[in-house]
Amino acid sequence: MSDVYLSGKFVGTVEDGEAFASSIKEERRRGVVSENVNVYYRHDTGEVYVEAAKGRLRRPLIVVREGRPLLTPEHIDKLRSNELRWSDLVRQGVIECLDAAEEENALVAFFEEELSPDNTHLEITPLSMFGLVTSLVPYANFNSAQKVNTGSKNQKQALGFYASNYLIRMDMDVNILHNSQMPVVKSMMHDISEYDKHPAGQNLVVAVMSYKGYNMEDAIIINRGSIERGMGRGSYYRPMIAEELRYSGGLVDEVCIPAKDVKGYKSERDYRFLEDDGIIYPEAQVSESDVVIGKTSPPRFLSSMEQYSLSAETRRESSVGMKHGEEGIVDFVLITENNEGNKLVQVKIRDQRIPEVGDKFSSRHGQKGVVGLIVPEADMPFTACGMVPDIIFSPHSIPTRMTMAHLIELIAGKTGALAGRFVDGTVFDSEPEEKLRKELLALGFRDNGLETMYDGETGEQFEVGIFIGDMYYLRLKHMVANKIHSRARGPIQLLTRQPTEGRAKEGGLRLGEMEKDTFVAHGAAMLLKERFDSDRTIVPVCESCGMVAIYDEYKRRSYCQVCGESPISFIELSYAFKLILDEFKSLVLYPQLKLKTKY
């Protein structure tokens, strides 16, 4: 007897679980049972699990009977001529969708020539096991699974041409690559997804070699000449938005140039770009602290007496300006209304981004790295036929990661560029490496991808052949210009008197426990003290009871709230420590400071 479970609940027993599961599958293929039902027979316990719940991942497979697929060439011809549809094949039981459980009972073949009498299903294409982005990775079956996954993630972060109407869109934090290209080595999915309409990378000449140690730890070296010709160049767009909000009592915000009597008025220089309507004009070059949209708001707190006051109410300044460390050019200005009928002003800022040291690049195989050095074209190594690489890639990045597809793509890209054609790198169904090597040899190059190269500075020939080829490189959205941050003095938090947190708020750079350990190891005690006094304060402490005392600025005298006129000492401590003493008092604890003289 076999127990039967429907969507996880016990519903009864059957005599032969395996035959019962097989009969449900047959009925499903005949269209008697819904095609959404999946059944799984567990051999070790003899239990049958029938699943029909929503939210299951299922994948389509071709049904195989006696070692032959039910999908025939006639079906394919009818599909091409639109006589048949996908749903017809599912209804006829030629194709069925399996979930994770039923897959346990299936033996799936990759290709038709691999079919045996034991196989139950055949893959439509091995590509279908990958998602949309992962299937864009060429020769992915030559990589370790982890790097295929990383390569997929990197493609999602690449700069490209994401929408053809980007000039009139108001998207947050957007990058555009100026000269996007289709990859020379592409997969079937590039055609299916119409990748040529939204490409996100460039075909570059890559040499695998070391260069003065500047491409250690995954870093790459870039040819300055390539950057000057437009390699990796892009634009960064971000919107700035202001809305005329309505408040209770008929008060409203006003987009205008703030008057000088407005509370929080900045300076005339900050408002210099604003036109009469309080909005900046297009193509203005703005930088840190410049106001983009001038706005004033009614006062925050209205007292009961203020409504009878004869004096004019003072409005406060609430303009939208450039943040700390930002700069750019005003791309376009949009004035409209929102759903509530309030005036809405949107200004898009544009900033050109040229690759610099620290910017992130990656191939489609998870081989990501930052720019370590930008070398003048005259100093770059060159091949015997005068080819200068755009990127120098470190050979140490290959062995431990086992990204063989990275190297195959270099050969395939080289062959495709020389032959003037696209190379098919579809996973499990790509052009074989042997064929590419023969074609490369016929084109007059060595079949192993090596070439004789010369030092760009001395002109000497390198004693080894350098592996050089063409591959599709991506520039990722992680740029130094968005992340660089430093500060001398700046704003502090009200509660702890410590520096604010975060780059946008001009925050401090935290020196934590581990950084402290490095200073201790160096014996740099005074530097450690200097780093740790961001919230240094001097407080009076009562010598008899050990509580924080009071210092009266006007009368220039100190006294203790507990003991009265007792001896008071002034000590230096962190304000955060003084704060925690006050918090202990709120818990009815007595934090007593026992003072000792340091002499």
Question: Quick gist of this model?
Answer:
The chain is α+β, with helices and mostly antiparallel strands and 599 residues long.
Major β-sheet profile: 6 strands, mixed, barrel
Poorly predicted runs:
none
**DSSP E strands, number:** 34
Query: Biggest sheet: strands side by side, in what order?
Result: 12-26-13-24-23-30
Radius of gyration: 35 Å
Question: What topology does this entry show?
Answer:
Elements lengths: L1 E5 L2 E6 L2 H14 L7 E5 L4 E5 L6 E8 L2 E2 L3 H8 L5 H6 L3 E5 L8 E2 L11 E2 L22 H12 L17 E4 L7 E2 L1 H5 L9 E7 L11 E4 H5 L5 E10 L10 E2 L29 E3 L3 E3 L1 E3 L18 E2 L2 E2 L5 E11 L5 E11 L6 E4 L4 E8 L6 E2 L7 E3 L10 H16 L3 E2 L8 H10 L7 E2 L1 E2 L11 E10 L4 H4 L29 H10 L2 H7 L4 E7 L7 E3 L4 E3 L8 E7 H12 L13
Parallel strand pairs: 1-4, 8-9, 11-27, 12-26, 13-24
Antiparallel strand pairs: 1-2, 3-4, 5-6, 5-7, 5-9, 10-14, 12-30, 13-26, 14-22, 15-18, 16-21, 17-20, 18-19, 21-22, 23-24, 23-30, 25-29, 28-30, 31-34, 32-33
Helix pairs in contact: 7-8
Describe this structure in words.
The chain is α+β, with helices and mostly antiparallel strands. The chain has five domains: 2-124, no CATH class; 140-233 and 357-475, DNA-directed RNA polymerase, subunit 2, domain 6 (Dna-directed Rna Polymerase Ii 140kd Polypeptide, Chain: B, Domain 6, Beta Barrel), CATH 2.40.270.10; 235-353, RNA polymerase II, Rpb2 subunit, wall domain (OB fold (Dihydrolipoamide Acetyltransferase, E2P)); 485-531, Alpha-Beta Complex (DCoH-like), CATH 3.90.1800; 536-586, RNA polymerase alpha subunit dimerisation domain (DCoH-like, Alpha-Beta Complex). Helix content is 18%, strand content 26%. It has twelve helices and 34 strands. The strands form ten sheets. It has a six-stranded mixed beta barrel with strand order 12-26-13-24-23-30. Strands 5, 6, 7, 8 and 9 form a five-stranded mixed beta sheet that branches. The longest helix has 16 residues, at 404-419. It starts with a strand and ends in a 13-residue tail after the last helix. The relative contact order is 0.10.
